[in-house]
């Protein structure tokens, strides 16, 4: 009532400050780029600096998308396992469900061998490997295997899926036929004679053949 006006400046000062510019990339784009770099580089060579350079941003900007390298690895591992959706656990015969889950686990490991190496040595990333194991274990118990035997079989199947993928991506094993042919002929005549076809034991048909042998043995054991 004394004619005192309200300062426009004080009103403006009460307004929230404008937000900064929108990020150039989505979090999903950052994760996909990280997965590509992990896949394409040498095992253990990936760094946050490398990712930041690839994205054209500073390292500190990168930490606006993920809290730290551990969180990045966890998110990238989840992304890799989402590429091949898990099939329902209760549809179809138990041996088909087991076969599907083993194939899915093998495919993921084969597509991302460097990430697999990281996941197997980091306890916080191993839950990414658990989903298919859970599917396999459920199917085995539905089939009638005891808890103890189901766990034994689970170990065999997951070791087969992961180990076969690691072997398929091993440069040393891919070069072994040449070594057998040129350096080991005298000591290993059988291998030397089949050196030209030796790599076939790591091809997709070999994986399917081995898996079928395991599953047939399991069905016969029930």
TrEMBL record:
<feature type="DNA-binding region" description="H-T-H motif">
    <location>
        <begin position="47"/>
        <end position="66"/>
    </location>
</feature>
<dbReference type="Pfam" id="PF02909">
    <property type="entry name" value="TetR_C_1"/>
</dbReference>
<dbReference type="InterPro" id="IPR001647">
    <property type="entry name" value="HTH_TetR"/>
</dbReference>
<dbReference type="Pfam" id="PF00440">
    <property type="entry name" value="TetR_N"/>
</dbReference>
<protein>
    <recommendedName>
        <fullName>HTH tetR-type domain-containing protein</fullName>
    </recommendedName>
</protein>
<dbReference type="GO" id="GO:0000976">
    <property type="term" value="F:transcription cis-regulatory region binding"/>
</dbReference>
<dbReference type="GO" id="GO:0003700">
    <property type="term" value="F:DNA-binding transcription factor activity"/>
</dbReference>
<keyword id="KW-0804">Transcription</keyword>
<dbReference type="InterPro" id="IPR009057">
    <property type="entry name" value="Homeodomain-like_sf"/>
</dbReference>
<dbReference type="InterPro" id="IPR036271">
    <property type="entry name" value="Tet_transcr_reg_TetR-rel_C_sf"/>
</dbReference>
<feature type="region of interest" description="Disordered">
    <location>
        <begin position="1"/>
        <end position="24"/>
    </location>
</feature>
<dbReference type="InterPro" id="IPR004111">
    <property type="entry name" value="Repressor_TetR_C"/>
</dbReference>
<keyword id="KW-0238">DNA-binding</keyword>
<dbReference type="InterPro" id="IPR050109">
    <property type="entry name" value="HTH-type_TetR-like_transc_reg"/>
</dbReference>
<keyword id="KW-0805">Transcription regulation</keyword>
<dbReference type="GO" id="GO:0046677">
    <property type="term" value="P:response to antibiotic"/>
</dbReference>
<feature type="domain" description="HTH tetR-type">
    <location>
        <begin position="24"/>
        <end position="84"/>
    </location>
</feature>
<keyword id="KW-0678">Repressor</keyword>
<dbReference type="GO" id="GO:0045892">
    <property type="term" value="P:negative regulation of DNA-templated transcription"/>
</dbReference>
<dbReference type="InterPro" id="IPR003012">
    <property type="entry name" value="Tet_transcr_reg_TetR"/>
</dbReference>
């Amino acid at each position: 009532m004394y004619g005192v006006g309200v300062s426009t400046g004080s009103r403006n000062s009460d307004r929230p400050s404008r937000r900064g510019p929108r990020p150039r990339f989505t979090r999903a784009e950052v994760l996909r780029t990280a997965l590509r770099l992990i896949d394409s580089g040498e095992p253990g060579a990936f760094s946050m600096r490398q990712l930041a350079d690839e994205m054209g941003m500073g390292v500190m900007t990168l930490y606006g998308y993920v809290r730290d390298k551990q969180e990045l690895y966890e998110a990238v591992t989840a992304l890799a396992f989402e590429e091949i959706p898990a099939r329902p656990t209760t549809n179809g015969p138990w041996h088909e469900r087991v076969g599907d889950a083993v194939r899915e686990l093998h495919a993921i490991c084969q597509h991302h061998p460097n990430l697999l190496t990281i996941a197997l040595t980091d306890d916080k990333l191993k839950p990414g490997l658990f989903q298919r194991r859970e599917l396999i274990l459920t199917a085995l118990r539905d089939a009638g295997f005891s808890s103890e035997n189901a766990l034994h079989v689970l170990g065999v199947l997951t070791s087969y899926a992961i180990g076969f993928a690691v072997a398929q991506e091993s440069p040393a094993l891919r070069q072994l036929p040449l070594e057998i042919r040129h350096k080991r002929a005298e000591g290993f005549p059988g291998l030397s004679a089949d050196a030209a076809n030796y790599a076939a034991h790591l091809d997709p048909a070999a994986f399917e053949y081995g898996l079928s042998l395991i599953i047939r043995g399991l069905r016969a054991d029930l």
